[in-house]
Amino acid sequence: MMWIIAHFQLKRIALKIFVILFFSGIWELERFHLRAQEAAPHLPAATTSSYSMKDLTILFQDKNYVEFFSHAKDIRPSERNKDWKSMVIQSATDWTTQQKNLLAMDPKNFDTLRDIAEWKELLESESFSAVWREWLLKIFAESVKENFSWDLMQKTLKSVQSEWNKERGDKISFGQDLAKLYQSLFDLKEMQKEEMSSKMSEILFPHKNQNELILALLNPAMKSAISQDLCSQDHIYLLLIELLHPLAKNTLEKQGLGSKVEEFDVQISSFMNRNCWISVREKLLGLFFDGNTDDRRRIYPLLLLDRSLEKDKMDAIFIFYLLDGGDEKPQVAWSYGKLKALSLDEKSRERVMSYVIIRNFLIDEFVSKVSAQRSSFLWMSFHRYFPEYPQYYFKTCSSYLKGEKKFPAGNPTAHCKELILKTEKMSSSAISRKLIEDIKKKFLPL
C-alpha cells in the first residue's frame, strides 16, 4: 500500500516539473522573439507574401517609399536587374531629398534610411551619396542648436563616419562643410557643448584633438586644386601653424638640415600639397618680415626647413635670427655661419638690407635676450662681417634723436644707447666717431 502511495506522489511531482518547464520554455521563447524584434532593421515588417517586380514598379510610381523598401529585397538576387537597381537608387534619392526638405525630421524615416544607405546598390551610387550627405549635414547642424539631442547626434555622426570612410562622392566639399559645422562648436562655451565636441571627436577620428580633427576633414581639399585658396584663409592657416610648428621644432632639434629637411617635406606632404604650403609660406613670410620678435620665433623653424625659399629671403631669416637673440644651438651655428659667408658677398648683403629698411622697428632684441658677453661678441661680428647693418641702425637712431625724420610708431632703435656704448669700446668700427659722439650726447648729456 505504501508503495502505491509513493508511486502516485512521484507522478504528481513529475507532472508539476513538466508544467513548470513547459511554461518556462514558452516564456523564454517569447523573450527571444521580443529581442529579435528589437534587433531587427527599422524597415516595417513584411507580409508573408512576396512582392513581384510589377508590385515594386507600382510602389515606385506611387512614391510609396516605406512599402517599396519593405519589399525591395523580395526579389531574388539573381533577378535584381538594372530596372530593379534603378528603382532602388531613384527611390532612395527621392525619399532622402523629400525628408531633407521637411521642416521637422521624422526619426523613424531617418532610421530606415540609415539602414538602406548601407545597401550595396546605394554604396555605389554617387547621386544618392550627394543628397544623403546633405541631409546628414543638415541634421548635424540642427543638433548643434539649443534643443539638440545627443542620441540623434550620435546616430548622425556614426552615419557621417561611415560616409567619410567610403571612397565615393565629393569628399572635398563634404569635408569642408563638416569642418565648418564642427568648428562652430568651438565657439560655444557651455560645458554641455564642450562635452559633445569631445564625444564627436571620439566617434569621427579617435585619438585626434580638435585641430587635428578639422585638418583631417580638410585633408582632401588641402591636396586638391583648390588648396592654395583654402590654405590662405586665416582660420585654416592658423590651424596649420598650430600643427606644423611642433613638427618643425622637433625636426630642428635633431640637429642638421640636409635629410631633416626631406623628413619635414614628407611630414608636410602627408596632409597638404605643395600649393597649400606655398600659400601658407607666403603668409608666414609676410608676418615674419613685418611682425614682432614673438611672431618670428614661432615662424623660424618652419621657414628654416624650406629648401625652396629664395636665397635672399633665407639669408635674411638667418640674420634676423641672430638679431632676435635666438638661442637654439644648431640654429645659432647655422646663422653665424651665414653671417660670415655674407662678408664675401656685398650684393647679398644689399638684398638682406632691403628687408631691413622696410621695417618700422629695427631688430635689436639680442641685447636683452642673451648675456652681455655674447651680445657684445655678436655686435662686433656684425661690424666685422655685415657693417651695413650697424651703419644703418645708428643713422636711424640719430635721425630719431635729432627729429630729422618722423617715426609715427616711436623709437625704431630701442637699444641704441646700449649698442652705441658697445661700439665705442671696439678697437675698430666702420661707424664714424662723430656719429658715435652725436648719439652719446643725446643719451648722455654733459
Write the layout of secondary structure elements.
Elements: H1 2-39, H2 53-62, H3 65-71, H4 82-100, H5 107-116, H6 120-123, H7 126-144, H8 150-164, H9 171-186, H10 191-204, H11 210-222, H12 227-231, H13 234-253, H14 259-269, H15 274-290, H16 293-304, H17 311-323, H18 329-342, H19 346-356, H20 366-369, H21 372-385, H22 388-402, H23 416-424, H24 433-443
Helix pairs in contact: 2-3, 4-7, 7-8, 7-9, 8-10, 9-11, 11-13, 13-14, 13-16, 15-16, 16-17, 17-18, 17-19, 22-24, 23-24
Please supply descriptive tags for the structure shown above.
disordered N terminus, mainly alpha, 446 residues, 24 helices
Structural features, described:
This protein has 446 residues and is mainly α. Among the domains are: 227-307, no CATH class; 310-446, no CATH class. 72% of the residues lie in helices and 0% in strands. The protein has 24 helices and no strands. Helix 4 runs parallel beside helix 7 and helix 9 packs antiparallel against helix 11 (210-222). It is rod-shaped and about 110 Å long. Mean pLDDT is 81; it is low at 1-8 and 17-41.
